[in-house]
Design goal:
203 residues, alpha/beta, Dna Topoisomerase Vi A Subunit, Chain: A, domain 2, 2 domains, 4-stranded parallel β-sheet
Amino acid sequence: MRDLLVLCADLNARATIEAILSRPRSLQTRPIDFEVRHNPIGADGGTRAHGVSILRAALGSFSHAMMVFDWEGCGASGDPEVIERDLTARLAADWANRALAIVLDPELEAWLVGAHRHFGKVSGVDVADARQWLAEREWWPRQQDKPARPKEALEAWLRAHGARRTSANYRRIMKAASLRVESCRCASFRRFATALRRWFPAQ
C-alpha cells in the first residue's frame, strides 16, 4: 500500500504539490510514497463536488488521502475553512483521520507568492526583490500578508519578465521555496504541511 494520494484541480496544482512532496527534508517528514492526480473534469468545482467519491475508490491502495482545490472557482460561496471542515468530515467516513480537504484561499497562487524570493528561478533574470516590484505596482501592499489577487499578481510579474504561468514554472518556484510551516503566513499551507508532518513524521 502506498502512503498518500492527493487529488487536485489542475496541472499547475499537480506540479506545485509534487514539487513540495518531493522535498521531505524541507517538509520535515520522512520520504513519502505519493501520487498526485489532477481532476480532468470540472477542475475546482468538480474536485469539490466529487473528490470524496473519487478518493473513496482509492481505499485499499493508499493509507492517506487529500483533496486540494481553489476556493475561487469551486462553486461554493461559504467560508473556505468551513468548506474544508465539512469535506474532511465526509472523508472521515471512509478514511477516519487519514484524509483531509484543503481549500486554497483564494487560489493556489497564495502559496506561490510566499516564495517570491525565488521568482528569479523562473525567468533566469536576477531579480533583487520581487516583493518590492509587486508593492511598487500596488499588487501587494506592504501591510498585507499576501496579495488580494495572488494569481493576477504572479501573472503580472511573470509577464513583465518574459515568462508564463505554466506548470513547469510553478514547479521551479516550489522546488526552491522555503517550506517552513513556522514562518508561513498562508493558513492553508500550514494546515497542509502540518498534516503531512503528523502522518509521516521524520525518522
